[in-house]
Specification:
Elements (H helix, E strand, L loop, with lengths): L2 H24 L20 H13 L3 H6 L1 E8 L15 H13 L3 E14 L2 E13 L5 E16 L2 E11 L8 H12 L2
């Protein structure tokens, strides 16, 4: 084998090794990556798409996307059974986003499931009543489940789609289950405000 043939063989082997390395990395398996934007969540074009968009934002741990579905004058009203000195004022959209950001920062995964949805038209929008189950998975695999019932006043024209104007939260099971209100209190208590 002369020097030219030897160089061709070495070049061919190097090229084959490079192709193999690139091809292997294309087919690597692993945990799916969370999308960095809300492009997979639909802009709700009707009131019945809104709950799906809210769930999608929660599963993506995207407080901004969730906040985009809240009206500028949004108010969260905690469960009426909660002592009012915990929450003397309803929460705003800015506070809701901050609350969710804290939840996402201290959890591995959060999932929101809606059940028994009822849509009722009103003069200037709709009211959605639904049960929910919010599961917060902590590091180490432990999880907490928050169950409740909501009465949402929703309207069209909030950042190009449907959004929530008011959120009235109620605990499930006669007040026995922890609800969104309780998660909010846990976060407020942990952050001191």
């Amino acid at each position: 084998m002369d020097n030219t043939q030897s160089k061709r063989v070495c070049t061919g082997v190097s090229l084959l090794a490079l192709i193999t390395l690139v091809a292997c990395s294309l087919f690597e398996t692993g945990a799916p990556k969370k999308p960095s934007t809300g492009e997979q969540c639909l802009l709700p074009r009707s009131e019945d798409e809104l709950l799906g968009t809210l769930s999608c934002a929660i599963e993506m741990s995207d407080a901004n996307l969730f906040g985009d579905r809240l009206a500028q004058n949004y108010r969260f009203y905690p469960d009426p059974l909660v002592v009012l000195d915990r929450f003397p004022e309803p929460f705003t959209a800015i506070e809701e986003k901050a609350h969710l950001s804290a939840v996402f920062a201290n959890s591995d995964a959060v999932n929101l499931r809606w059940l028994n949805e009822v849509y009722e038209p009103t003069f200037d929008g709709h009211v959605i009543e639904a049960d929910y189950e919010l599961t917060v998975t902590r590091s180490g695999g432990s999880h907490d489940v928050y169950r409740g019932h909501v009465q949402l006043e929703v309207a069209e024209g909030i950042r190009g789609g449907w959004g929530v104007v008011t959120w009235q939260d109620f605990r499930a099971n006669g007040g026995i289950s922890k609800s969104w209100t309780d998660l909010r209190y846990e976060v407020v208590g942990a952050t001191g405000g």
